[in-house]
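(Deposited chain)
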Amino acid sequence: MGEAPMKQIVVLGSGFAGTTVVRELERIFRRETDVAITMISRHNYMVFSPLLPEIAGNIVEPRHAAPPVRIFMRKARFQQAEVLAVDVAARQVQVLYPDQRTAQISFDYLVIGLGSVTNYAHAPGADVNSFDLKSLEDAIRLRNHVLLMLELADHTADPAVRQELLTFVAAGGGYAGLEGLGQLIDFVSKALRYYPSLRRDELRFLLASHSRELLKDVDTKLGGYVAQKLGERGVDVRLGVSVTAVSERAVVLEPGGSIPTRTVLWAAGIAVSPVVESIDLPKDRHGAIKVSSALQVEGHPQIFALGDCAAVPSATGTYAPTAQNAIREAATVAQNIAAHMRGGGLRAFHFVPMGSLASIGHYQAVARIFGVSFSGFPAWLAWRAVYLAKLPSLAQRVRVLLDWALEMVLHADIVQLPVMSSDDMRFMAMRDAHTKMIEQDSAHAEAQADSRRQAQQASEAAPAATPVAPLEG
């Protein structure tokens, strides 16, 4: 009797959701030899997204907030590739490797944790004229751009152009917008010491939020505290205002009109990725994959989805797309895959978030933990303690802790770091593959030419045949 075929579990994405699923699956199946676990992601690291504003603000080194996923893996395999499509009926995932090879990866169980992308739908021009904070590249690019604005303003005499260069706008009053703006203010303020021609009163910071209250889903008093503190730091806080367009040199507010600026931090919502959109699975009105309370996709018991790309039902609607929810969902997904594989009952996901925190810069933050709200320096300490503990490895914790310590005693670093986009890397891979193909063709042609020359030389070196005289009769 032959052995049972190995069960293939494929996990898409290396964010909080995907990484936690793989770690839990490894723990559950560590002794089983008939289960294979494969993670597929375009990056070989996990982005610890709560630290992206601090990367943009030159507090944390980029690689310190990006633990490599392979350090978590003992049983699982990792494939660095971009997910192109998922064929639900054939149970295959189509991927593109960095060297432009494509492949079909078969699965018995599929976990979709592909996160989200920035939503620019309601503001023409925002996608090409603003900055977001979804990746390491985004954070470095924003930092480089801010330094460039200071460099340009430093030798610009025209007051109008100078003001345009020194105006910084954050669109969105959620956690990403508030934390990003807070770190941006700190970074620019510290960097000014290297630009003696620039004055602090020339800087203009503006926060535009569609909501009439900041953090209204958490605690309106905390939102009021944030608005007050930002106002004290010179931020023009505009509530009930939408950004309706972004150009290279201005944003358009409604109400409020056009504001000249060359720096817009876009934090006004998220959307599912184009890959998730393309998968033939049931979706809600926002495009998120519909799942049951067990995180199973409706009608597909061997496909699970979680995190930002899934509509996970809760008692009041759906769970918010937060890191702490994704981590808890991941544990349930891993347990339910094991239960389904073994013929057991599935567990419904239920989680009461411990709370939320937001750092707004200058050693200030707001927090609501287990129903208790507090703000100021104690909340800032709590923010750092919580996220330091959540870093997935001891090495990352030590490195980030050292970054924080050094930032408090050293001056701002104003080096513009080189950054390469995914499109740049894809182009370079295609260029390198094309160059390699040309080199191989050239080497093959040269080898053929050498072979012909050697044959010709051998023919010329051979002794001529001696004619044979005819026999006389």
User: Anything to note?
Assistant: The chain has a mean pLDDT of 91.
